Here is the input.
Amino acid sequence: MTDWAGTGRVYTRDDAQITVTVGGVAYQGWLQSEVERSIETIAGTFSIPVSLDPGNPPAIKRQDEVTVQIGDTTVLTGFVLSAEPFYKRGDCGVRVVGRDRTGDLVRCSALYKGGQWLHASLTRIVKDLVTPFDLEVVVDADVGAPLVDFKLYHGETVLDAIARAARLRGVLVTRDNDGRVLLTKAGKERFKGVIARGVNVIEMQGVGTDEHRHSEYVVFGQGNVDLNGATTMDEVTLRFQNAHDMRESGKDAEIKRYSPLVIQADGNTTRAELKTLVEHTVKVRRGHALGIRYTVEGWTFEGEPWPINQRVQIFDDVAGLSGDEWLICSAKQTCDLREGDVTELLVRPVDAYDVVPLNSRPKPKKFGSEGPHDGAKTGGGRR
Here is the structure.
């Protein structure tokens, strides 16, 4: 038992087990198990060896439905991708590899009759795209007004399509532990545990660079022309100019040298929306430039597996954090001979996944031979 960095609460390491359940039969995972989930991918993955008695292999085969539990909590619901036998000296088993049910959305093409929605809600668009895969949709955020006109791009994947639609309404697309598509916001909940140097941290390493940060962001856009009340040609001309020459800018005060980025917002917009887009871009690019990868003891905290998309308090005087809340972006539970059962956590400032409704997808102009790569693997992520 160890005090949480002087908070008066006590940390006790749990002896949790990883369990793979196939066809109603539960199998315990053992050496070199791995379960990985991330806010930036819509499908978690696992690789877990289970024991095999020669001549009596477990009844696990490819494409079987599977659930993975850590302790008493289900963390992944999906399908078996492979179940291959192995042995080495006295060890003999079957390595079961699989992923979430939502994994098909990453590699399969988006198909919908007509390929277009008019005045449809984000929820309806997502349901129309994922229902053929026998997937449910859980809505845990305000999805805003219906989209006036949404079209599929030729050859895009289902994930790309729903992520693009979600960005227009400032919603994050991810998955839940039951293998459902989840429309939510980043960091709505705070995890009950802590990351504390000298308590449960085995290893820490800072990650991220300022490669995609700029000193100033300049956003250009066009709006609708309102000619009501215009009485002269000069006034009409002026209103057209104002609608076609909208510009907003914002600065990242931490980037000292001259490093501008121009973003062209597609479609009709307003000055207020351009200002929101600028502020959003500054926060998101700064957030993605910062990150810490922690390896902590055990797979759980007080019986709960380390989650993703929850805020967690960090006490780390080396990193300069004293109770600060950062977002858990990924959690990778592993077991190996050297460290035993550990969890690798990637944390970032919550602003890294700030989401705002956008009328359109920004297309940055390139500087030099290579421009920055905006966009995200999941809806409402990095821009």
